[in-house]
Amino acid sequence: MDVIKQKEYKKYARDIIDKMTLDEKIKMIHGNELFKTGAVERLGIPALSMSDGPCGVRQDFEASKWNVVGNTRDYVSYMPCNSAIAATFNRKIAFEAGDVLGEETRGRGKDMILGPGVNIKRSPLCGRNFEYFSEDPYLTKEMAVEIIKGIQQNDVSACIKHFACNGQETERLAVDTIVDEDTLNDIYLPAFKAAVEEANVYSVMGAYNKLNGEHCCHSTSLLNKVLRDDWKFDGVVVSDWGGVHDTKEAAESGLDIEMSVTDNFDEYFMAEPLKKAIESHAIDEELINKKVENILVLMQRLHMIGDTRRKSGVYNSFEHQKKLLAAAEESIVLLKNEDNVLPIKPKAGERILLVGENANMQHAPGGGSAEIKALYEITPLMGLQMELGGNVTVDYICGYDSGFGGAQDSSWQAESLKDKKKAKEKDESHAAALRKEAVEAAANYDHVIFIGGLNHQEDCEGYDRKNMSLPYHQPELIKELLKIHPDMPVILIGGNPVEMGSWVNDTKGLIYMFYNGMEGGRALAEIILGKVNPSGRLPVSFYKKLEDCYAHKLGEFAKKDVVTYSDGEYVGYRYLDHEGIAPEFPFGFGLSYSKLEILAAKLEGVNKVLAEVRNAGAMDGKFVVQVFKVNRKYGFKELCGFEKINLKAGEYAAMEIMVDAIECDELLVGENYLDI
Ligand code: BGC
Hints:
Blueprint: H1 3-19, H2 22-28, E1 50-51, H3 82-87, H4 91-107, E2 112-113, H5 137-152, E3 157-163, E4 176-178, H6 181-188, H7 190-197, E5 203-206, E6 210-211, E7 214-215, H8 220-230, E8 236-238, H9 247-252, H10 272-279, H11 285-301, H12 318-331, E9 333-337, E10 351-355, H13 380-388, E11 393-397, H14 428-442, E12 447-453, H15 474-484, E13 490-494, E14 509-514, H16 520-528, H17 550-553, E15 562-564, H18 573-579, E16 596-604, E17 608-615, E18 621-631, E19 636-647, E20 652-658, E21 667-670
Parallel strand pairs: 1-2, 2-3, 3-5, 4-6, 4-15, 5-8, 10-11, 10-12, 12-13, 13-14
Antiparallel strand pairs: 6-7, 9-14, 16-17, 17-20, 18-19, 18-21
Bound molecules: beta-D-glucopyranose.
């Protein structure tokens, strides 16, 4: 941040504060509507208007009730989720996605988008993992920094969340998360730190949970010491909705704005109770002046006050749709392709059967606060038919029943502070009947593609999955279908890994697609048909079984009162690498229809790797080169650099990969950590 500007902004803010009454200040530091603070019209100060995030700009709700407004104005572009963005391993894509999100936020007239979410995926069961990037702090921070820069160049604020260690949904408002300092600094905090120091993020959201005994939303260790003193954060801290529990603590902490899910706005901790405490001199008014100052500085940064020449934004532009298609294409991960069963090349007159609910399900309207009222969402069924045209028939049969239509209730958030229970699965006989119907139908088709996985009943805020199995009896269905169509590609869509052991060896073609936004179905069709060469890489380990995740082995996940991160630094692939445990598919893994050769690689100076590479296959494509450093203290390799490159078939290139490898004596270069 430009220091002179910052000083000017502060002075302007202080001049305003001098003119303000206590009531006016109080109005600005808590929700006065469900997504807005109070305005002070007398002094020309507008309300600060926020919206979720992170998969697009959320639909509008009534000012004080969780009823959707429900007109046509709030249909928006639906973005690939952050896990999908991470899977692109492409910083430019992350920046462009951020730019789309920022421009849409502004276009919708909002000031702050409540994202991105940068919590580290410690367990594959966490219901909100789709909103987060990765199990790896380096990948998370690299992508988050770009997204934030993209968002904020549109005169809107990103609000990075949830600070910190919001790693489980179970009892998320009460659970005390115990984490040691090294683990915090090495695993859970780097993305937040980089957001502040490298991306100059304007806003941070506190987490619901406690961290080492303190509520994150008013933790003095986290907000005053780490965020403000150590990292010099000078933006605005917003509470999660309902994350404040105490007036004095909130006033004395680095928190600036209290938000919640109820409409008793005047009774919020930072409303009337705070006013009374100031009037009785129990709390110093200067603490509140500081919060108001931070908000007024933010408003100047966003050109809401002061110099009000502000970008106007735009939403639902063709440009946005094209950018999101590019992101979606690069996020899809090809996991297996024996005998080159993919891409498929259907001939005129042939018939394709898609089996599995996700062929025909739209995911935008689910997931919790990340729900999106999408202008459109191309499903795989629509995408394939669109790409193939009228000479090939594409039919669909569900094959299993999740009992979930895709959309959540509009009252979702009003109930969001209670733990959710998943709807009961339908019984075995119902599943067997659907399976039989699908298998019988499959016998009559030239090509069969299975498109299943998870949905937002499984991957949802306020809920953690109970195990890693592929639900709704899908494994049985896949196995039976493979008996009659052994080349059948299996495509899984979701936000989290699933167990595959019982069927994966029988498949030849396997693709994973994280919830991939409005153009996801088209992107998937392009990959299946070979119009686009897959280049996504897994941003998380796909474990063989849950216990291969150290947190689960220790039984330290989804605990009710206290969860202890005794797995320490051994999160994700770090544990697998240390123990020599083979995952089903490793972090960083992803195939191509072509093949990359790394011909040479060497370190140049302290922070750059030079590599010579070649596309040794017959198809143009994009490839990722990853650099890992050997961490001798903990005994594992860890990602410290990556770069994506576009190469024509046969093309050679020299690549420069910036690495974060200070104090490291050994670097390894390859396509993923198992490969080197
Ligand atoms: C979520 C936040 C979200 C907020 C506002 C909370 O339930 O945890 O991520 O931004 O609601 O909808």
